[in-house]
Amino acid sequence: MKYHIVTYGCQMNVHESEKIAGLLRGAGYEEEGAAEEADIIVFNTCCIRENAENHAFGNIGALKKLKKNKRGLLIAVGGCMAQEEGKAALLLRKFPFIDIVFGTHNVAELPALIERKRREKKVVSLLPDRAETEDGAQPFRTSYPNAWVNITYGCNNFCTYCIVPYVRGREKSRSADVIVEEVRSLVAAGYKEITLLGQNVNSYRDGETDFPALLERVASLDGKFRIRFMTSHPKDFSERLVACMARHEKICDLLHLPAQSGSSRILSRMNRRYTREQYLEKVALFRKYIPEGELTTDLIVAFPGETEEEFEETLSLVKEADFSSAFTFVYSPRTGTKAAEMEGRIPAEIAKARITRLIDCVNENTRRKSERYVGQVIEVLCEDYDEKKGLYLGREPLGRMGYFSAPCNCVGEFVRIRVSRANGISLFGERV
Ligand code: SAH
Ligand code: SF4
Ligand code: F3S
Asked: Which residue puts its alpha carbon closest to atom 5 of ligand 3?
């Protein structure tokens, strides 16, 4: 029996798919690269923006024929969209050929649901929330030499645009001992980069252990490996955290600090709980401790009621905070969130013009900062081979992708390259 998993959304979901793979392997399935050849196709969905949902809808719909022609093929849909209020029913109405729907709180039940499907017609199992942080699912990791490690699940912030708190439930922190042991064994198994995951890592807490304390413990483990973490909410970003980053060489000097907007009025409407000035104070703190470090961010344009001047404040923030790159999004209304009820929807043409200007503005920073690397030596952690380019690739500590040629497979190795050319966030060079 073979499985094929299709993943949408964030790193959290990528890691969840690794758990799904682990569970299916435990149930006797093997991985299959081609959907047509699989006995079970699992969609791990995302609903953060409308286009993420449309994507999943399109691809699930495209399976109708395959399902008709292949007896015994199972189709399971899980993840954030499945967990969204009313979406499971809509999915089954639109695509009656779906066999199993499961949610974000009961991934570990999937093998049992497959069993149940042998006896029942449709199987839908969505839990409202879950108290425990450990479900026993052993991930089948596919991202070597990087390993994802959850430190928290869920989110309590309720930013007014965001669906995550509704589909991922209340915030829960995993035990610090469990996390440290997981990282220790991953490093012992040869992983060279550990990425700690949470919707808001800065609100991590296990008894006395807060995020800086956890990071301290992880960074004090033996071995040569890098530590990254995401996502850091600016309201909880502390001097202790940045001091810890500065103290440990293992922790990459790259901070992803989503600003969302450069306008204090819009930030307040977003319920982000910081002003532009407070955000810039956090940036200054980071620069003070880590002058050579780099900052990336997430930005939303055309939030309800955003004026032209307020949008321009986001542009000026890109320059003032000097972001190296940014994920930029057009606001997408999500049913059930507060912002979806707000006045002042921005027409699509205006939103499009704004996102274009913002992307240009960010790209200018990226280009300028990458060019500074030409002639320098960087150390990348080789993670893959690009067939099209015929080059190996790996990231340097500050997140840029370095491309180089090598005579033999060096995936999983730290490689020093001299940069000869920069293109956006990609750097090209020769091994030294
Ligand atoms: N927990 C993380 C972000 C998770 S979602 C944090 O708080 O930073 C990733 C990004 O998607 C967000 O930072 C935001 O920029 C964007 N996003 C979330 N909801 C959105 C919406 N309704 N429309 C457009 N972008 C959205
Ligand atoms: Fe969404 Fe805000 Fe939570 Fe991030 S912190 S997941 S943007 S509600
Ligand atoms: Fe991630 Fe999308 Fe869910 S961004 S948390 S998979 S809604």
From this structure: 164
Per the DSSP assignment, residues forming a β-bridge with 74 are 40
- CATH fold group of domain 285-370: Transcription Regulator spoIIAA (3.30.750)
Whether the bond between 142 and the residue before it is cis, its omega within 30 degrees of 0, is: no
Q: How far apart are CA 207 and CA 204, in angstroms?
A: 10
pLDDT score for 355: 98
Q: Which atom of ligand 2 is nearest to the CA of 158?
A: 8
Which ligand is nearest to the Cα of residue 7, counting in written order?
Answer: 3
Q: Detail the DSSP E strand segments found in 233-330.
A: 254-256, 294-301, 325-330
Q: How close is the Cα of 293 to the center of ligand 3, in Å?
A: 28
Residue with the smallest CA separation from ligand 3 atom 2 is 46
Q: Tell me, using a 6 A CB cutoff, whether residue 274 lines ligand 1.
A: no
User: Three-state SS for 97?
Assistant: coil
Q: What are phi and psi of 101, to 5 degrees?
A: -120, 125
Find where tokens 């922790």 sit: 251
CA–CA distance, 317 with 372 (Å, rounded to integer): 21
Q: What is the pLDDT of residues 70-107, one digit of tens each?
A: 989 999 999 999 999 999 999 999 999 999 999 999 99
CATH of domain 143-252: 3.30.750.210
pLDDT for 22-62, tens place per residue? 999 999 999 999 999 999 999 999 999 999 999 999 999 99
Nearest protein Cα to ligand 1, atom 18: 162
Which residue has a Cα nearest atom 13 of ligand 1? 298
Ligand that lies nearest to the alpha carbon of residue 15, given by its number in the listed order: 3
Domain 2-126: state its class.
alpha beta
Q: How far is the CA of 11 from the centre of ligand 2 (A)?
A: 14
The listed CATH number (3.30.420.140, 3.40.50.920, 1.20.1260.10, 2.40.50.140) that belongs to domain 377-431: 2.40.50.140
Return the domain boundaries, the chain: 2-126, 143-252, 285-370, 377-431
Same fold, 143-252 and 285-370: yes
